[in-house]
Design a protein that fits this description.
By secondary structure, this protein is mainly alpha-helical. The chain is built from eleven helices and four strands, in the order H-E-E-H-E-E-H-H-H-H-H-H-H-H-H. It is about 60% helix and about 5% strand. Strands 1-2 form a two-stranded antiparallel ribbon. A two-stranded antiparallel ribbon has the order 3-4. Helix 3 runs parallel beside helix 5 and helix 6 runs antiparallel to helix 7. The radius of gyration is 25 Å and the shape is elongated.
């Protein structure tokens, strides 16, 4: 796509296809052997690689020598804007990050969390006016696939916060669907709130986002209710997958 117009490629491979990583592995196998010969610890997936050394000074030296090897031996161009010397916990890799502890723990990279939020927000915007069962059915494959990819994450708090944010967004959609204060009061009572509290909450004059995160909506639509509706919990899914593996 160039400027929104489909045009024929003259070079390169299709993005997302299996040919690109295959050719990368064939070409960069020589880089792997060179790094092994030098005794470096490294990890590589297609053209994305991290090399681990003991100091920033060693990192600068290795970066320069590897760049020379790629340019002179393999005739490749190095993207310096994406190449850096940094602490391991400051470098995300394939969507994962690493904690700074002496015994590092894998975590989901901040950028990966942000991308999921953007994607879910778009799906939920398109689902306005639809039944909640249909909305859940729409986002569940995304949540299930994302949790499957990040099942190695050992940091649970961001996942718990993400689950809470998703439920918050869904409660916000429901609050908007109820529209009138009288409808909101009636539905809150149907979901177990007292008449006094339901009326006070429905007529408080606050916006949808505030109300969807307030105690009255958390009590009316708790996590166990979303579980019964079939909403995938990212944290619960990763915990289950961790026990299986």
């Amino acid at each position: 796509m160039s400027g929104g117009v489909v045009s024929q490629r003259q070079e390169g491979t299709p993005q997302g296809g299996p040919l690109s990583p295959l050719l990368s592995n064939i070409l960069l196998n020589e880089l792997d052997r060179e790094l092994e010969r030098r005794g470096h610890r490294f990890v590589r997936y297609a053209d994305d690689a991290n090399i681990y050394v003991r100091s920033p000074r060693a990192g600068e030296r290795v970066l320069a020598s590897v760049e020379r090897f790629l340019i002179q031996r393999l005739k490749l161009t190095v993207n310096r804007s994406k190449s850096q010397v940094a602490r391991a916990w400051k470098c995300d890799y394939l969507g994962y990050g690493m904690s700074w502890h002496q015994q590092p723990r894998l975590r989901v990279a901040t950028m990966s969390l942000g991308r999921l939020r953007v994607r879910l927000a778009e799906l939920l915007r398109r689902a306005r006016g639809h039944k909640m069962a249909n909305t859940i059915e729409r986002i569940n494959p995304v949540l299930r696939g994302w949790a499957g990819y990040f099942k190695l994450s050992q940091s649970k708090r961001p996942l718990e916060e993400l689950d809470g944010w998703i439920r918050h967004k869904l409660r916000c959609a429901i609050w908007r669907q109820w529209k009138r204060p009288s409808t909101r009061a009636r539905n809150l009572m149907r979901l177990g709130l007292s008449e006094e509290r339901a009326c006070k909450s429905a007529y408080n004059g606050r916006g949808p986002w505030w109300n969807s995160g307030a105690p009255h909506m958390n009590q009316a639509l708790p996590k166990k209710l979303w579980d019964r509706l079939g909403l995938v919990s990212i944290l619960d899914t990763i915990n289950r997958l961790s026990r299986i593996t």
